[in-house]
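Why this split exists: single-chain examples teach little about how molecules sit against one another. For that reason, every record in the complexes split bundles all components of an assembly together and asks for one structure covering all of them. Below is a record exactly as it appears in the raw files.
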Amino acid sequence: MSDLVLQNIGKTYSNGYQAIPSIDLTIEEGEFIVLVGPSGCGKSTLLRMVAGLEGISQGELLIKGDQVNNKEPADRDIAMVFQNYALYPHMTVYDNMAYGLKNRGVAKAEIATKVSAVAQMLGLEELLTRRPKQLSGGQRQRVAMGRAMVRDPKVFLFDEPLSNLDAKLRVQMRVEIRELQRKLGTTTLYVTHDQVEAMTLADRLVVLNKGHAEQIGTPMELYLRPASTFVAEFIGSPSMNLIPSRVEQGKLQLSVDIQLDCPHVSAQSVMFGIRPEHVDISPLDQADVPFIVKAVEALGAETLVHGVLQLGDGNTPAFIVRVAGHHHFEGGETLGLTLPSQAWHLFDAQTTKRIEA
Amino acid sequence: MIENRPWLTVCSHLVLLLGVFIVALPVWVALVASTHPSSAFGSGSIPMWFGDQALANWQQALVGKEGQASDLLRMTVNSLIMALGITFGKILISLLSAYAIVFFRFPFRSAAFWVIFFTLMLPVEVRIVPTYEVVANLDLLNSYTGLTLPLIASATATFLFRQCFMSIPGELVEAARIDGAGPIRFFFDILLPLSRTNIAALFVILFIYGWNQYLWPLIVTTDDAYYTLVMSVKRMLSVSDGDIAWNQVMVSTLLAMIPPVLVVIGMQKLFVKGLVETEK
Amino acid sequence: MSVYFPQKYLPYLLLLPQLLVTAVFFLWPAGQAVEQAFYQEDAFGLSREFVGLDNFIELFTSPEYFASLLTTMVFSFSVAFLGLAVALWLAVMADRVIRGAMVYQTLLIWPYAVAPALAGVLWWILFDPSMGPVALALDAIGLDWNHFVNGDQAMILVVISATWKQISYNFLFFLAGLQAIPRSLLEAAAIDGAGPSKRFWGIVFPLLSPTTFFLLVVNLVYAFFDTFGVIDATTQGGPGQSTTTMVYKVFNDGFVGLDLGSSAAQSVVLMVIVALMTVIQFRYIERKVQY
């Protein structure tokens, strides 16, 4: 049985604003689903609707087959980890973790067993008598997760849990969350705006844009076959290069001068996309298109070259090239680029949807 | 200090000491006056140094003179009942109403808020006669209820708690709801512990406010079983034959001011916090 | 915050005590005052008749009422000005001294806890014409002090008593305001060649102006309404009417003079004044929120 089902779920606020028109999503048991998108895309609203902290305007929400639309958050058998951890400042770590169990009338001895088991799993045994104020950011994060885990819920909900940690800790906690989730096998819904976090954690990703799901799929599906320009730009760093162009008579026309073979697509105006890492630098006379270097970011393992394509007639769209290893380029230098056709992405200029070759 | 100018610092200390002296002067005189026999107040300046009647005067006030027990104890108890009644009453009803206003959404919420806000505009001194009549109609004259109840509605305390509650992160409420805490549990388990210092600070301010009530007890009590310390001083001053027993007046004055002054000095931090917060 | 408890009736239950007390002891009396202001009642409360605006007209044409208005103004602004000036001076000094600032704070703030009536009694004994040391000292330098006879002197006595109690409050707020001024600002000014007094008037005082304005309003409200005890315990509005403020007059006309119609009309006038002051105070709070 599917663990968590969202059927035609929508949210309209009382002032008439439609935050989420309609979303369908079926999540299997033990799956790690990440909701990702820019701020204001409705990802947190959706999560909070699942939690029961926001009302559901339309559709059905099923947890393990039960319709829970109108159930109180506490009765949905979910647990949530908040962005700011939301630890009770006046309670010890132990009491923070035990509070939900206490309210459910769990016996004291059982609470103690559960809390200490989770504390051990998270390495919190030494901290059980401390208060949140006496903990570091990473420790608080762990307590927040522990509070969710002791309840052994059907679904974990995470609302940008790592955004208040520094970069190094974020990576470490990311790995830890993934491992824990695998070990516990609890179905998880995770909200983030950080695409790296999304890619590394998710079994499947839901890319949200203005309240609707642009694409649902595994990280690699999204990377290799983005369904729209929005997903194409959102997934991958630096973003995919997108250049408005036309396809006519089997040729991709980046400009009057620069035309590339493109046999399978019929005539229309398109967005031509190619990822910075899929572009090759080649001698100017063998290249598809000339490129003028504006700025170089040498990161050691890779070099990011920012510049513009020379398409003729003063048409100079911005373009980024990513080259493995360390290379030296001069600002103002002209390079030749080849754009291998297997790395192309073509999108309909009007609908922004992907055109399958 | 920006520049090092020792004489400026010395000057500052002198000014401050002068300030402390002037502020303390009347209490010093009162203390000295309370140690002299009443005959010392007939002619010429009241003495500026202690007399020898300290024991007798204070004993008379505390224990009573021959054949007449002191009513100090009763008045102190009355003052305490009034001060604590007002304090607890105000804190309780303000906590509840602020809780309703911040953590619930319901029709007429802002109407309720404005009704409470309106009380800011109606200090008891302003509407003293009709309030007296209402209390009289309710048959509450000469009762502890009449002394306290009309004074416990307070917009200031409600606003303070509202401010304090609004600073509690929404995520905490959400976490509590997910943890299965309803509004009552949340109030006792989370909200009250988190508002502890605010409640304590307000307690200090309101205790002083309640203890120092003067006009209200003066008009709602005619039975001396309900007299309070502060108003009793006034009654000692308006004796008909004009001979004021200054030594006794001073003892009573000092006794009436000791409890709130001790509270302020003993809980200075909370007091300062309470003052600053209630005016936010 | 966006999360609320979903219970429908609980909030009304929570609000009930406060609203009940407010309705019975605030709104009802206030309404009665408004109603009564349009009636004339005989001294025994046996009959009353509707007189329209007569009570107000009588009030606003009565020289006594204007005298009390003037008295209130003189009293309130004297208390506010004196209290602010002395407190600011002391706070600046306390801010200057590094050692002992907290000790001075303790020694200066306790009068806040003294009831206004007791403050009046304490200063009365200092100024008592026959035995007060200050009064006798004034007599010695040729100033004949008797606040039971001389209205101006009675006013000075109540102003001093009322101010004495309020200095502590002003002092605390000024000290907090001063301590909130960044040191670096004063250091920059010192490097620019501004001496202590230039720094005070050029930087500190303007930066304190929100605090000063706030305290001015609070002090005026205090002088208007919270000083009843001071006046009642010392001068009882006398000699003559020289220390009868508007609040004192409401009480006096109502309870002593038993002129309920006039007292009610005065209550209504005072309510309008408080409403205006509250609006000013609220404006200030709003502005503070914006910063």
